[in-house]
Amino acid sequence: MTTMIIGAGLVGSQIAHILVERGERPVLMDFSPQPDALAEIVDLSRTTLIEGDVLKPFTISQALLQHGVTSIVHTAANPLLTLGAQRDPWSAIQLNIVGTVNVLEAARVHGVKRVVVSSSNVLNHFLAGGEGKGNSADEEAYPRPTTFYSATKQTIESIGLNYARWCNVDFAAMRYGAVFGPWSGRGGGGPSNIVRGALEVALSGDEAAVPSNSMEWVYSKDAAMGTVLALDAKDLGSRVFNITMGCVVGPEEFAAALSASIPGAKMRRGTPAASAVSMPDMQCVSDLTRARTILGYSPRFGMTEAMRDMANWLRSRASAR
Ligand SMILES: NC(=O)c1ccc[n+]([C@@H]2O[C@H](COP(=O)([O-])OP(=O)(O)OC[C@H]3O[C@@H](n4cnc5c(N)ncnc54)[C@H](O)[C@@H]3O)[C@@H](O)[C@H]2O)c1
Fold first, then answer.
1. Residues near ligand 1 with C-beta < 6 Å?
2. CA-to-CA distance for 150 and 2, rounded, in angstroms?
3. What domain range includes position 307?
4. Which of 28, 37, 158, 174 could form a disulfide with 8 if both were Cys (CB 3.0 to 4.6 A apart)?
5. Distance from C-alpha of 124 to C-alpha of 116, rounded to nearest angstrom
6. What is the domain-level CATH number for residue 172?
7. What is the number of domains present in the chain?
8. What is the pLDDT of residues 174-186, one digit of tens each?
C-alpha cells in the first residue's frame, strides 16, 4: 500500500510525517520541493521525494505506475490561496481545478483505491445569496462562493463527487479551517502566515499583530490527522468533511492563546490590509459531527495548545541554529 502526497508543503509534510511514523513509505510529489523545510518535519530518508507538476497528467501517471501508488492525497494549491487567487485568478483556476481533474482522471484510469483532496472551510464562510432557500426552481436556490479561491474549491468538490458517482473513484474532500503549524518553507495561506508571523514577532520581543476578525482555525497536525483518517476509513459514506478546531477564535481568544504560549508577549490589534480579503469575520462554527462519526476525527489542538506547540517548535529551531 503506497500513498502519494501531491503538494509537499504545510499540510502535506505533516501527512507524510504521520504515514512515516506508522511504517509507510509515502511518495511526496511537488513541482518545487523544499527539502530543507520538509526535513524539519519528516524523515525524508523514509519517503520517496519526487519533482512533478500536477498540471502535467503524464507525470502523475508515470509516478503512479513507477511507485505502485494505491491512494492519493492531493494538497497542491495556488500560492497564497485566497490572496493569490484574487491577484491571479487564471493561474489559480488552472492549478486548483485542472490540477484536481488531472489527479482524478489519473486515479480513474489507473484504478487508484482512494483520492483525498484538500478543500476548505472558505465554502462555509465566503458565500452570498441563496435567497431561493434550496428551491431548485429558483435561480438563486443556493449561496455562491464570493472569491475565486472558494469558487475553485466548490468546483473540485462537485467534480470529485461526480467521479465518485460515475467513475468508481473513491473520493473525499477535507474542508480544513485556516491552517497554521510548524513549517519554515514557502506556502500556506494569508492567515497561516499571520499566525506564524505573530509567534515569531512575539518571540523576538516585538509587538505581534492580533487579527481583529474571528476565524475558524485548524492546527496542521490535526488537518493531517483528519486526512489520514479519511485515507483509512473503510466506508466514507459521505464524502465532504469539515476538519477544524470546532470553534471560532475571536481577537480575545487569539491574544489569550498567544500570551499562554509566550508569557509577556507584546501585542497590538490589527489585520494587515493586504490580508483582509482572506480573513472575513467568521461567525458560524463548522459542524464536526460527520467527521467525528464517520472518520473518528476529534481535534487534539485548540488555539492555546496549537500556539504553544508551534512556539516550542520555533524555540527549538532557533536554539538548533
Ligand atoms: N493553509 C491554509 O490555511 C488552508 C486552509 C484550508 C485549505 N487549505 C488547502 O489545503 C491544501 C494544502 O495547503 P498548504 O497550506 O499545505 O499549502 P502549501 O502552499 O504549503 O503547499 C502546497 C504545495 O503545493 C505545491 N504545488 C504548487 N503547485 C504545484 C504543481 N503544479 N504541481 C505540484 N505541486 C505544486 C507547492 O510547491 C507547495 O509545496 C491546499 O489545497 C489548500 O487550498 C489550506
1. 6-12, 30-32, 53-55, 75-77, 81, 95, 99, 118, 120, 176, 178-179, 187-189, 191-192
2. 30
3. 3-320
4. 28
5. 19
6. 3.40.50.720
7. 1
8. 999 999 999 999 9
